[in-house]
Amino acid sequence: MTNEPAHAFPLADFLEMVTGVTGPGVAMARLNAGPKHLNPHGTVHGAVLFAMADTAMGAATMNVLESKQLCASIDVQLRFCKPAFGGELVATTTVVQQGKRVIQLQGDIRDSGGSLIALASGSFAVIDRTREG
């Protein structure tokens, strides 16, 4: 696993989330869910799970782009399968189709025991850094 390029990512820092690329077009986001990640019912907040999936998708997308390109989420869908009550969670995503302007991804979030917490799918836009306007 290689870490993402060194740049400021305040949300990941706040969530104490670690991201990494695990293969071509494959990335992960991991965190140890504690009290600050829980909703009032004592389960990991859906927004935390969404942030994990979206972040892992962005890392997987950036891994297949050229250096002059960047990406942005177009659509991310998350289907919750089982509540998580804390502990280590890992989102893993894979590029399933790479077009010139849109990249399709799928993934999941699992707990440390391997139980499926959520399923994710998404589309990311490919943006040329040199293009203006």
UniProtKB/TrEMBL annotation:
Record-annotated Thioesterase domain positions: 41-117
Annotated EC: 3.1.2.-
Keywords: Hydrolase
Alphabetical list of InterPro entries matching this protein: Acyl-CoA_thioesterase_PaaI, HotDog_dom_sf, PAAI_dom, Thioestr_dom
Gene Ontology terms, MF aspect: hydrolase activity
Record field: transmembrane: none
One Pfam assignment: 4HBT
Matching CDD domains: PaaI_thioesterase (cd03443)
Name this protein carries in UniProt: PaaI family thioesterase
Organism of provenance: [Mycobacterium] vasticus
